[in-house]
Specification:
Elements: E1 14-20, E2 23-28, E3 31-36, H1 48-52, E4 55-58, E5 61-64, E6 69-72, H2 74-77
Antiparallel strand pairs: 1-2, 2-3, 4-5, 5-6
């Protein structure tokens, strides 16, 4: 029996299971997570088709190409470790 010399690309399983008014359920590698819109506000105004189009390019990483959103899978279990507020430098006005 002859074996193939080139292996196929590994498949990382990710699937949106359900969307509700309060968030969505996502299956990542046989583990189900709930992403509430209160913790992940970027998805709250997204179209359903945009949420369903999710990629799992490598372990621990999720990407929504139509929304340009990258998430760590860890952020689904411990969103408090991934604050939503960015630190922004205050720019001095030239008109003073």
């Amino acid at each position: 029996m002859k074996k193939s010399s080139v292996r196929g690309k590994p498949i990382l399983v990710v699937e949106i299971l359900n969307i509700s008014p309060s968030g969505f359920w996502i299956l990542v590698e046989d583990v189900e997570y709930f992403a509430p819109f209160s913790e992940f506000p970027w998805f709250s105004q997204a179209k359903i088709g945009e949420i369903f189009e999710v990629e799992h390019p490598h372990p621990g990483h999720l990407y929504w190409p139509k929304l340009d959103i990258d998430l760590s899978v860890d952020s689904l279990t411990k969103p408090e470790n991934f604050p939503l507020v960015a630190k922004v430098k205050k720019i001095k006005s030239k008109n003073k």
